[in-house]
Amino acid sequence: IYTLSLHDALPISRQWSAFLARLADSLNADGTVLFAYDSSRRFIPIRASARIPPDFVDLYAQEFPDNIWSRRSDQRFAPGEVRYSQGLTSTQELHHDRFYADFLLPANVGCSMGIKVRFGSSQPAYLAITRSPSKAAFDSEEGSLLLALQPHIARALELNRRLGGVDLWSGALHMLPFGV
To answer: What whole-number distance in Å separates Cα of residue 44 and Cα of residue 123?
Structure first.
């Protein structure tokens, strides 16, 4: 008897990366990234990206998660609202900041849009989509796509969060003499 386990499927991060790549294609974007954490439960954090080198994602997560632009975004945009980078600051102010010099410029990010997604965690997930400086900023029509996808992303994240505890039991389930 062959039993299919959660571990036989593509790893969660690869599944998210595949989704993010398709999202980038549909929005003529240069990169996408998704951060999701839940410190209140056993949950494998999600840090998935498409077309953004992992070292840039790591750099952001380690050096800049609480930068002034993230704080301004958190203050101005509630979960369920699209955040457009062009509304956060002036170009002149941004160009004088370490975040620009050490992250945005080397990562070739000219503009971004993002959305906070509530999914049952103590803190929302964050999905960001970027374009290079040579491309136009995101508009409200593109933002409406994020809003339409939000409940589906939230449901997928919530399922992932709930199944996080299942991983604790998967080893025991594989030892049972019958299929589960």
So the answer is: 14
Compute the distance between CA of residue 79 and CA of residue 93 in angstroms, rounded to an integer.
Answer: 26
Task: Say what the pTM is.
Answer: 0.80
Residue 149, phi then psi, degrees to nearest 5: -80, -20
Question: Which of 128, 124, 127 shows the shortest CA–CA distance to 79?
Answer: 124
What are the phi and psi torsion angles at 146 (to 5°)? -60, -45
User: Left if phi > 0, otherwise alpha if psi is -120 to 50, otherwise beta: which for 80?
Assistant: left
Residue 63 tokens read as: 């050096």
Full strand arrangement of the beta sheet holding 125-131: 46-50, 31-36, 125-131, 111-117, 82-84
User: Which of 70, 85, 79, 86 has the alpha carbon at shortest distance from 147?
Assistant: 79
Q: Environment class of residue 120 by beta-carbon count within 10 Å: exposed (0-12), middle (13-18) or buried (19+)?
A: middle
In contact, 146 and 115? CB cutoff 8 Å? yes
Tell me phi and psi for residue 3, to 5 degrees: -110, 135
pLDDT digits (tens, 9 = 90+) for 35-85: 988 776 666 678 899 999 889 988 988 888 877 877 877 788 888 899 998
From the list 50, 6, 55, 9, the residue with the least C-alpha distance to 31 is: 50
